[in-house]
Amino acid sequence: MSIGGIGSCGGGYNFPSLSEMRQNMFDRMDQDGNGLISKTEFQTAAAERAKKTGQAMDVDKLFAAIDTNQDGSIDKSENDAAMENMKPPPPPPPDMMSDLSGLLEKIFAAMDTNQDGVVDKTEYEAAMNQIEGQLEGSTASAASSSGTTDSSTTAASSTDAAADTNKESTLLALIQQFLESMLSYEKYQHDYASSGSQDSKSVNSYA
Q1: Residue 114: which residues within 8 A CB-CB, separation 6 or more?
Q2: Would residue 108 be called left, alpha or beta, if left means φ above 0 and alpha means ψ between -120 and 50 degrees?
């Protein structure tokens, strides 16, 4: 999820429906946007998935199984039919849901500086500048810490140490925490899918 979409999530994170997940997955694989997934596009998606999960799949066999009319491409109806075997993604455990929602609320509040319930273009740009400044500050701090220690460096280090007490509440840190939580949720989904039948595992690997 992009930061630009946070404005619609002020009331909590909305997890996508199964139909939305199917459409999004189809659109990602249909790289040329012609409404069909070619064998090459399917192979590319499978390679990316294998790299991400560490689990390879029999691409030729799976493509042939989904391409039921054997015309060399997968259309939306064939994709949807294959996805019928996919177990719906489980909702996050309560503690994970709470963490995700809480982090989104903090990110939104940090960006919505006038507290009107909307992140407008000016606030969004200001947030991006703030993140850029925090990234530059982290880089500069790392560079200074690698130099020779003297009295000025020691003083700077003391200042940095004091600032570190608030670093977990910076916009950049909040976004990093949110992304880490989303990665945990994705792993939770993958582990859940992998616990199913062999047929479900094949289709979930495809997804």
Answers
A1: 123
A2: alpha
The predicted model scores a pTM of 0.43
Residue 114: inside a domain, yes or no? yes
Residue 171 lies in a domain: yes
DSSP string, 153-166: HHHHHHHHHHHHTT
Q: Which domain holds residue 160?
A: 94-184
Give whole-number Cα distances, 38 to 4, 25, 87, 98, 140, in Å: 32, 14, 25, 40, 47
DSSP state of 15: P
Angle at 119 between CA 13 and CA 98, to 5 degrees: 25
- Tokens 């409404």 belong to 35
Give the Cα separation of 47 and 40 in Å (integer): 11
Q: What is the pLDDT of residues 104-132, one digit of tens each?
A: 899 999 999 999 999 999 999 999 998 88
- In three-state secondary structure terms, 73 is strand
pLDDT (tens digit per residue) in 3-53? 444 444 444 445 556 677 778 888 989 999 999 999 999 999 888 888 877
Q: Is residue 138 part of a domain?
A: yes
